[in-house]
Amino acid sequence: MAGATYHDPSQMRLQGREEGRAEGRAEMAAHAVLAVLERRRLPVSEVVRERILACTDQDVLEALLRRAGVVASAEELLNDLPKDGSSVE
After folding, report:
1. Which one has a higher pLDDT value, 82 or 88?
2. What is the pLDDT at residue 85?
3. How many CB atoms lie under 10 A from the CB of residue 50?
4. CB 67 within 8 Å of CB 40
5. Which of 19, 30, 75, 81 has its C-alpha lying 20 to 30 A from 47's C-alpha?
6. Domain limits of the chain?
7. Contact residues for 81 (Cβ-Cβ < 8 A; gap 6+)
8. Does the global pTM surpass 0.90?
9. CA 34, 29, 65 angle in degrees (round to 5)?
10. 23: confidence class by pLDDT, cuts 50, 70, 90
C-alpha cells in the first residue's frame, strides 16, 4: 500500500517480500510467453519483447501464455495486451 505507515518493521519487510514475489512471478510468466514464441520459431520484435516484459498483470500474462501457443505471429499477442501492460482494459 503506497503511503502506508508501519509501526512494526516486520510489516514493512513482509509487504516488501510479497511485492518482490509478485514481481518475480510476473517476470517469470513474461519470459515463459517469450519462450513459447521462440520455441514456435515466431519472430519476436524488440517492441513485442519490451511490451511483454513490461506487463505486470498476472492475469494478462497467463492469457498471453495460453495464446502464445496458437497465435500466427508474436504481434498478434499485442491485441490482447493493454497499452500500459499493467492490467486488462
Report:
1. 82
2. 47
3. 11
4. no
5. 19
6. 9-80
7. 51, 52, 55, 60, 64
8. no
9. 60
10. confident
Cβ atoms < 10 Å from Cβ of 18: 10
Cβ neighbours of residue 24 closer than 8 Å, sequence gap 6 or more:
none
Q: Please tell me whether residue 63 adopts helix, strand or coil conformation.
A: helix
Confidence band (pLDDT; 50, 70, 90) for 29?
Answer: very high
In this structure, the chain runs to a length of: 89
Residue with cell string 497499452? 83
Q: How many other C-beta atoms lie within 10 A of the C-beta of residue 70?
A: 9
Amino acid at position 12, single letter: M
What long-range pairs does 79-84 form, CB within 8 A, spacing at least 24? 81/51, 81/52, 81/55, 82/57
